[in-house]
UniProtKB/TrEMBL annotation:
It comes from the Eukaryota. One of its GO terms (molecular function) is alpha-1,2-mannosyltransferase activity. The lineage of its organism: Eukaryota, Fungi, Fungi incertae sedis, Zoopagomycota, Kickxellomycotina. GO terms for biological process: cell wall mannoprotein biosynthetic process; protein N-linked glycosylation. This is Uncharacterized protein. Keywords: Membrane, Transferase, Transmembrane, Transmembrane helix. It comes from Coemansia interrupta. The active site is at residue 235. Coiled coil: none annotated. One of its GO terms (cellular component) is membrane. Belongs to the glycosyltransferase 15 family. The keyword Membrane applies.
Length: 336
């Protein structure tokens, strides 16, 4: 009898999740993951969490991208842990190499100099191709053509909270274009001329800039860059926005300026400045309720919302280190 009662009690606390893939409306969306064969173990850990916390109820598909072919082992072992369709894409060489207008000697000298100055990833060549790819090309990979929404995932990130609604549909129904979990300030040494280049772009392309935008989020009192950016290892966003003439013209302008190679411009500040220029606050959403970890930072729900999580709420970066985080400043901005 004791065992029976115990089972009943346990049953009461079990959350029963329906399979929502057939019964409910779905967005035209996919997870997109740029990764390497050697990331297999970390990526499986991440995907098992993402499936457990969300996707086992929705079965959204996955697109894996790589500058080298994925191994058969990688494909099989990924397919084993996910409930959505998987497609594995090779990145075309033109999207992961030097454009002809880049002086490769100057690029190599910049890497050497930044390595000596101990700037994070300063001497790393492939990291620069990665940042340029995530800034300007992943959304133009042919495997992404059929989708309207993407969710970027990286190997090794953690998902701590049960997500009991569809974040893609949330974006669509609320006219959101860009969603983030963590925002922080960038290392200035990686982007010394990004702000000036962006200002020049804006001056030369005034007609492309909407009156209501989010430039306040990235501008300091003196009119310079406050270094705030949305951390792009997590993004839920509109592919139509990234594929727009506006965003692509901004990326092309930056690419020509050479800072992906002569400096070490990250895709996070580039996406963020694009978002700030072209979108307004109502179109950008902080997923406060998504418990998310990318080393070394957490976004973790507070109070009642933490009940369905395993993350420590006091660790959430916007309360733990307000000075480095930009999220509460984002929240305080006026709506358009
Ligand atoms: P960090 O988050 O800035 O420290 O950079 P990561 O090392 O996490 O890289 C960012 C993303 O790009 C991750 O999804 C990586 O798996 C991926 N990535 C980085 N470098 C390469 C590369 O050379 N090839 C491929 N295919 N993916 C890469
Ligand atoms: Mn990462």
């Amino acid at each position: 009898a004791a065992a029976f009662t115990e089972t009943l009690v346990v049953k009461e606390t079990v959350v029963v999740h329906e399979d929502l893939s057939e019964s409910q409306e779905k967005a035209n969306a996919a997870f997109v993951i740029l990764t390497r064969n050697k990331d297999l173990k970390d990526l499986r850990e991440t995907l098992i969490q993402l499936e457990d916390r969300l996707n086992r109820r929705y079965h959204y598909p996955y697109v894996f991208l790589n500058n080298e072919p994925f191994s058969d082992e990688f494909k099989a072992k990924i397919r084993n842990v996910v409930s959505g369709e998987c497609e594995f894409g090779l990145i075309p060489t033109e999207h992961w190499s030097y454009p002809d207008f880049i002086n490769q000697t100057r690029a190599a000298e910049a890497r050497k100099d930044m390595a000596e100055r101990k700037i994070i990833y300063g001497g790393n060549e492939s990291y620069r191709h990665m940042c340029r790819y995530e800034s300007g090309f992943f959304f133009r990979h042919p495997l992404m053509d059929k989708y309207k929404w993407y969710w970027r995932v990286e190997p090794g990130v953690k998902f701590a909270c049960d997500i009991d609604y569809d974040p893609f549909l949330f974006m669509e129904k609320n006219d959101k274009k860009y969603g983030f979990t963590i925002s922080i300030k960038e290392y200035i040494e990686t982007i010394p001329s990004l702000w000036e280049t962006t200002m020049n772009y804006m001056k030369e392309n005034e007609a492309k800039i909407p009156e209501k935008n989010l430039m306040e989020f990235v501008t300091n009192k003196d009119g310079g860059y406050n270094l705030c950016h949305f951390w792009s290892n997590f993004e839920i966003g509109s592919l139509d926005f990234l594929r727009s003439d506006q965003y692509v013209s901004y990326f092309d302008y930056l690419d020509r300026a050479g800072g992906f190679f002569y400096e070490r411009w990250g895709d996070a500040p580039v996406h963020s400045l694009g978002v700030a220029m072209f979108l307004n606050k109502n179109e950008v959403h902080w997923f406060e309720d998504i418990g998310y970890f990318h080393g070394p930072l957490w976004n973790c729900p507070k109070g009642k919302a933490n009940d369905k999580c395993w993350c420590p709420e006091e660790e959430s970066i916007e309360i733990k280190n307000k000075g480095w985080s930009c999220t509460l400043d984002f929240v305080d901005l006026p709506n358009p």
